[in-house]
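Deliverable D5.2: sample structural annotation.
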Amino acid sequence: MSALHAAIGQSLGASRWIAVDQTRIDTFADVTEDRQFIHIDPDAAARGPYGTTVAHGFLSLSLLSTLAYDVMPALGGYKSSINYGFDRVRFLAAVPSGARLRAQFTLADVTEKAPDRVLVKLTVELEIEGADKPALCADWLVLLHL
């Protein structure tokens, strides 16, 4: 527990890059039934504000789960982690089909919930390769079972 407190404010590192191709976007649209043209119709989207199809904001957000696996070992030994929610999420830039994303994670806070449970707050920035603005930033809460 004291090691976690000592790490508050420290970067946990960056995840690997992950591709967001049209197949991934279409699959997400099917699962969520969000089939807005800007996500799934390349011809119509070409005439829209981004000139191409873009990923759903919630698709980008959902990728944080897999990207977190790359950095969570930096938190030390724990038995399991549970998504506890978000204090804040902001979608800052559209993610064009074919883009690659990676996440930067920082340990922002640690709160003991029980002798064997710790709530950690992670500050996350989801980068778009080659872009000036991140796709999103978030304060993510994760409950660790020690």
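Annotation notes: The first helix runs from residue 2 to 6. The chain has one domain: 2-19+55-145.
The annotation will be released with the project's public dataset once the embargo ends.
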